[in-house]
Write a structure and sequence with these properties.
The structure holds two protein chains of two kinds. Chain A is 70% helix and 0% strand. Chain A is built from six helices and no strands. In chain A, α1 packs across α2. By secondary structure, chain B is an all-alpha fold. Chain B folds into two domains: 45 residues; 69 residues. The longest helix of chain B has 36 residues. The chains are: A mainly alpha, B mainly alpha.
Chain lengths: 133, 124
């Protein structure tokens, strides 16, 4: 019986360890992907607008002539970067957010995207940022 | 039994390939499930005892060699991807290199855990 218990314990440790490693792996891969996406959005913005990446993203967000998808991505990227210089620009566009409301990313500036960006820019936790920043 | 295995593997591969190319994930999953079910049934019917120390030892050596080769290969590949990605400014390549790095780390960590598991299992 004790031998059986020890075997079960060993198996449980092994399965838990591998499960934990898988989760850790998925977290790091997702965080790397987020970092890659942020860098891509920054690169696109810097091709069109002057200044460093935050300034270029702010200009993209404020450009009413630009595509809404690109502007939503800019808001998201600004939140991910967490640079407080962007807070005023994001807040200016933010008109509050109701839970569950839907958004067409190609037709409007998404309130949820802006809400997330404001939260992150105000110092909210961003657990994936340490991987790619 | 070996013929049945080859047949089932070919069948599963074909079904998964058809499912993947036609974008039908359910077909691929159904193919895998049917293959597993068929193998279990065949094994139960034949009633053979599958324990060959030589095959097991060879499998262990092959698995260790595969681990070593793939770890080193992916490690080098990831370094090359990261290096080229940074030099050319290709973020996608750099991200791919980073993911390969994580795959190598995961490989090594799982190897260590399973090694420890089997070590304890066999009275280590």
């Amino acid at each position: 019986m004790t031998r059986q218990k020890a075997r079960l314990k060993n198996l449980a440790f092994c399965v838990a360890g591998i499960g934990f490693l898988m989760l850790l792996f998925m977290f790091f891969v997702t965080a790397s992907w987020i970092g890659y996406e942020v860098k891509e959005v920054c690169k696109e913005a810097m091709l069109k607008y002057e200044g460093d990446r935050v300034e270029a993203l702010i200009k993209l967000l404020e450009d009413d002539a630009a595509d809404f998808r690109a502007r939503n991505s800019a808001a998201w990227a600004l939140g991910q970067l967490g640079d407080r210089r962007a807070l005023a620009a994001v807040k200016k566009r933010y008109k509050g957010y109701e839970k569950g409301s839907r958004c067409d990313r190609g037709a409007e500036l998404c309130r949820y995207e802006l809400y997330k960006a404001v939260k992150l820019l105000e110092g909210g936790p961003n657990i994936s940022a340490f991987v790619w920043r | 039994m070996r013929r049945a295995k080859i047949l089932v593997t070919s069948f599963v591969c074909a079904i998964v390939a058809i499912g993947a190319t036609s974008g039908n994930m359910f077909l691929a999953l159904a193919g895998i499930a049917m293959g597993a079910l068929f193998m279990a049934l065949v094994r139960r019917r034949s009633g053979e005892v599958y324990f060959d120390e030589r095959v097991e030892a060879l499998g262990g050596r092959a698995a260790r060699a595969t681990f070593a080769v793939m770890s080193v290969f992916l490690g080098f590949l990831s370094l090359i991807f990261i290096f080229i990605g940074r030099r050319t400014g290709d973020g996608g390549l750099e991200a791919l290199g980073t993911v390969f790095c994580y795959v190598v780390c995961l490989n090594c960590a799982i190897y260590s855990i399973t090694f420890k598991y089997f070590d304890r299992e066999h009275g280590g």
